[in-house]
Write a structure and sequence with these properties.
single chain, mainly alpha, three-stranded parallel beta sheet, 3 strands, globular
Length: 149
């Protein structure tokens, strides 16, 4: 779901690898509709590559969408993405973007395993901690301090 540099090539890859019965490609859509798909997924993917400082330290919105949806995450071992995934024990990270490495990680994240159940359970605590309601309080305090000066 979404868009990006490689989005236009995805349908061709699905056909090339005979994945028509396993992969659904959807363009951008309203948030509530997107979250319906997200909540029905088994694993959330954050596969950005460390190509520049922006990616290295970024925190994609989708990471928090996955957490709020209660699904484990497989993410690139980028500084902040890895910190969120590993500190909260909500999934796996990987350093090598080779398809075999990503596939091996995906196989380790199959629903029904003890590890999967634990990651999924851990998303509940992470969702309670990593939410706008908590960040809003911090932001209000910052504004109040700035106004008091």
């Amino acid at each position: 779901i979404g868009s990006g540099d490689l989005f236009a090539s995805l349908p061709e890859l699905v056909v090339k690898f005979n994945l028509e019965n396993k992969v659904i490609i959807k363009g951008r859509m309203p948030y509530a509709e997107m979250m319906q798909y997200t909540m029905n997924s088994d694993v959330g993917l954050s596969l950005d590559k460390d190509t520049n400082v922006n990616y290295r330290f970024s925190l994609p919105n989708k990471l928090f969408d996955y957490i709020q949806a209660g699904i484990p995450v497989l993410g690139s071992h980028l500084t902040e993405v890895a910190r969120i995934i590993l500190d909260n024990q909500i999934g796996l990270t990987f350093d090598d973007h080779k398809p075999a490495v990503i596939a091996e990680c995906m196989n380790r994240m199959k629903p029904g395993t003890d590890a999967y159940r634990q990651w999924k359970a851990n998303t509940v605590a992470a969702a309670n901690e990593l939410c706008w309601e908590n960040e809003q309080k911090k932001l209000i305090q910052i504004y109040k301090k700035a106004l008091d000066k």
